[in-house]
Amino acid sequence: MERFQGLIGIALILGIAFLFSNNRRRINYRLVLSGIALQIAIAVLVFKVQPVAAFFQWLGRGMQLIEGFAFKGAAFVYGGIGVPKTGGGIMDYAAGGFVFAFNVTATIILVCALVAIFYHYGIMQRIVALIARAMNFIMRVSGAEALSNVASAFVGQVEAQVMIRPYLQGMTNSELLASMSGSLACIAGGILVVYANMGAAAGLDLAPKLITASLMAAPGALVISKIVFPETEESQTFGKVKLEVKSNYTNVIDAISHGAGDGFKIAMNVIAMLIGFIAIIACLDYILVRTGHIFNPHFDLTLDYIFGKIFYPFAWAMGVPQQDISSAATLLGQKLTINEFVAFKSLTDKNVPVLTQKGLLIISIAICGFANFSSVGMQIGGIGELAPERRRDLARLGLKALLCGTLASYLSATIAGILM
Predict the structure, then answer these.
(1) What pLDDT is stored for residue 30 in this prediction?
(2) If you compute the radius of gyration of the chain from its CA atoms, what whole number of angstroms results?
(3) Which residues contact 394 (CB under 8 A, 6 or more apart)?
(4) pTM tops 0.90
(5) What b-and-e string marks burial along 282-310, b requiring 16 or more CB atoms within 10 Å of the CB?
(6) Residue 119 has what pLDDT?
(7) Contact criterion met (CB below 8 Å) for 244 and 171
(8) Whether the Cβ atoms of residue 179 and residue 165 lie closer than 8 Å to each other
């Protein structure tokens, strides 16, 4: 029955995209079908082919190693600070303690430094170009779209646009929307490692699911965006995937310095958003509970309760098992309206419990992306700095990109759920 629900979910997601399409007659159905087929192929390889599944499990263990390496740096900086010990008492942080802000910051900084090293030596660009050529061949999208969407699976939403900076000015609006949608549907490598390790600390094996989610999001975002805004103009990069393998760093030390500095900025932004959003949620929940008590003293009206009702149909249609639908709906609401970090924290802290493995698979893929209202503003500002002449187009396409990025994540999650 749940697989049948998943088929309804695919129809619902594609139907919503079709409903918001600005030119239904120009939809390229070959692109749509090939993109969905590519998403299915990725999911089948990861979840059904044992050698591939083992490789992704190995990557997951590698993510835990990265956190261990990052802790070495954090232990040096924060050593001597007393933190609570499991079972009671106080211990030195350097002896293996955990402080969310310290550990998360260290992990993001290390991953950003590693990405900068790979970028300096041209490794990142070659990986992105190789995968982009394959996607370009299968889906027949433009080179700029393919590069941007694939890059978004490895680096941040604005950093991915840096790789196609020479093309931004001349990109069609359809290409621009596809690029923005891909960046919102995917998630940066540093953040992905953090979420995977948050899951590992809670006994949840999230790493393979999150890697799969980010890979499936690239073709998924193209599918949805090309339904919402079909291409009607001539692309400058159609059929061409050309990426300049050039480093902006003087040497590897310069790359590490810049990468670590950028990672620190990202980490501080994450911490600031968490403090701000969680505090505002507490404030809103207080007001809502007081309001609910006016009508019924036993009724605790909260944002989670509201999200659980609004997103319930989506969670059901995606094939989430019955006992997890309410929790899944709450997490979908938190991710879209607040941010994915709050949703993952609720999931891994088990404040919003997901009981089944299938429910965990679907919801972890569905919330693995940057598609939320605050990210739209960050993207418009970031890409607007790279191509100031396109700022008006970016602003006009912002909410469409949010819709496309959200539906792309839902589509990936639904397909994965059907195959489980």
Answers:
(1) 93
(2) 21
(3) 176, 180, 379, 380, 383, 384
(4) no
(5) eeebeebeeebeeeeeeeebbbbbbbbee
(6) 83
(7) no
(8) no
CA–CA distance, 35 with 140 (Å, rounded to integer): 10
Give the CA count within 13 Å in the CB-facing half-sphere of 227. 24
Task: Find, among 323, 372, 366, 331, the residue nearest to 348 by Cα.
Answer: 331
Q: Where are the alpha helices (DSSP H) in 296-390?
A: 303-310, 312-317, 325-337, 340-348, 357-366, 373-386
User: Mean pLDDT in runs of 10 for the chain (420 residues)?
Assistant: 81 96 92 93 89 84 84 90 82 84 86 86 80 81 82 75 76 90 86 85 84 89 95 76 70 91 84 83 90 88 87 93 93 89 89 89 92 82 81 90 94 91
CA distance 74 to 34: 45
The confidence score (pLDDT) of residue 324 equals 94
**Phi and psi for 68 in degrees, rounded to 5?**
-65, -40
Q: How far apart are CA 144 and CA 35, in angstroms?
A: 16
The amino acid at residue 395 is A
- The token pair at 70 is 């990052």
Which residues are bridge partners to 92 per DSSP? 82
pLDDT at 2: 62
Burial status of residue 178 (CB atoms within 10 A of its CB: 0-12, 13-18, 19 or more): buried
What is the Cα–Cα distance from 174 to 176, expressed in whole angstroms? 5
Helix H or strand E segment including 393: helix 391-419
**What is the reported pLDDT for 239?**
65
**pLDDT value of position 338:** 83
In the structure encoding, which two tokens stand for residue 200, read together? 């590992």
Taking the chain, what is the end-to-end CA distance rounded to the nearest angstrom? 13
What are the angstrom distances between the C-alpha of 215 and each of 29, 38, 153, 352, 363? 21, 10, 6, 26, 16
